[in-house]
Fold:
Amino acid sequence: MKVYILNTPAIVKPSQQVVAYPAHNKDYGIEQDFLIWLNKQKHFLTDDPNAADWHYLPVYYTRWHINHSFAANGQGVAELQSLVEKVIIDDAKTFTISQFDAGTLLDLGRTVDFNAGRTINQCIDIPLLCSAHRKPPVPLKKQFLATFNGAFDTHPIREEMRLKYQDSNDIIVGGGLPTRFYRRWFWGKSFNVNVMKSYVALSPRGTNCTSFRFFEAMQMGTAPCLIGDIDVRPFKKFIPWDEMSYYVASVDELEHLLKNLDKDEAIAKGKKAFQYWRNELYYQKWCKYVIKELEHYNQ
Structure:
């Protein structure tokens, strides 16, 4: 398979964004990561668009939309649409990588969107990655059945989960966002430590259908559980997700899972989750699955 990289102007690939999220994240994401990776794959690349099986449209949608007030009231969208339309040669053989909630926010015709933040948009799901958290040098003893830290107002399922477990001692659902590890791990209240002390890391969907928590939990070596109406665990054709994670569609299903949890199985899933995160799904590792998806597209 051959890929041609479309010549997008520098303006659609901003060098930085005005707000970082999650808070600990470096100003770097999957949109930059894939372009860097693809430029290294000389055996895939061609300078002839006619000889290419696919055209890659490199745009840093997340930086662009964040720098335009998170696309509030469509700010910046028309300008980006105009700039991108001038570049696309054949939308039927074009693909792009986006992380922003709801994808590109553009009308790109038949272009295939690999998106880490699906809402109702059509896309192929990819990992929602952020900078790795610091961890203690030794494993932590399991203390909680499951934990979650994060905002509750991004989706009703989060508030339902909070109300369900607000009085529980072994299922910890707390507010606030994850923090850097630093020296406070021995307090046992930081996101990092609570995740590592849990058999399952709860990853309820938010504004989009997935959560940074899912892949952060994998980095911590704890089995993540995606909670939401759509199973958006990426690359299902190629990755045995049920061997390293859980998925439930509702809080009722979560309750059943946790009541019947096999703790030894959960620990084994967490260990495999970390290995997959490190070797297959972190920056520069996940990109090869895009090529696999394109090879199987419409099959």
Summary: Strands lie at 3-5, 54-57, 94-98, 112-115, 124-125, 144-149, 171-174, 198-204, 223-227, 246-248.
